[in-house]
């Protein structure tokens, strides 16, 4: 089936009070996620967009002595294939699971 791709671009900035090292710079990045291009996938994309707008999609973590933007607790498929083990499809339960989290 067809894929619906999502791109999240997080710019580098300074962290807020609730982050691991408040006031310190952190590195952003580009993050890609994939959904099936069908009614359920499009509905999920809208929910993911709302979660992003509310600041729930990403978190700042310290990694190798550097603070950087990383995926938060909402699961995203970062590959179109490769199976569930590689964060891709096929994964028949993903849309149900992510909608439960959202």
Automatic annotation (TrEMBL):
EC class of the enzyme, as a word: transferase
Keywords assigned: Cytoplasm, Ligase, Metal-binding, Transferase, Zinc, Zinc-finger
Organism: Bucorvus abyssinicus (Northern ground-hornbill)
EC nos: 2.3.2.27
Gene3D superfamilies for the chain: 3.30.390.130
Compartments, record wording: Cytoplasm
GO terms for biological process, alphabetical: Notch signaling pathway; protein ubiquitination
Deltex C-terminal domain location: 8-99
Entry GO terms, CC: cytoplasm
Matches recorded under Pfam families: DTC
This protein's name: E3 ubiquitin-protein ligase
Ligase is among the record's keywords: yes
Annotated family: Belongs to the Deltex family.
Coiled-coil region list: none
Pathway terms, separated by semicolons: Protein modification; protein ubiquitination
Recorded catalytic activity of this chain's protein: S-ubiquitinyl-[E2 ubiquitin-conjugating enzyme]-L-cysteine + [acceptor protein]-L-lysine = [E2 ubiquitin-conjugating enzyme]-L-cysteine + N(6)-ubiquitinyl-[acceptor protein]-L-lysine
A single GO molecular function term of this UniProt record: ligase activity
């Amino acid at each position: 089936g067809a894929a619906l791709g999502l791109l999240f671009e997080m710019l580098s900035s300074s962290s807020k009070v609730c982050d691991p090292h408040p006031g310190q710079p952190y590195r952003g990045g580009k993050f890609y996620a994939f959904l099936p291009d069908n009614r359920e996938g499009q509905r999920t994309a809208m929910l993911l967009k709302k979660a992003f707008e509310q600041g729930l999609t990403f978190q700042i973590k310290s990694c190798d002595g550097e603070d950087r933007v990383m995926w938060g607790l909402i699961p995203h498929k970062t590959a179109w294939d490769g199976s569930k083990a590689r964060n891709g499809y096929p994964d028949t339960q993903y849309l149900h699971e992510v909608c439960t989290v959202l």
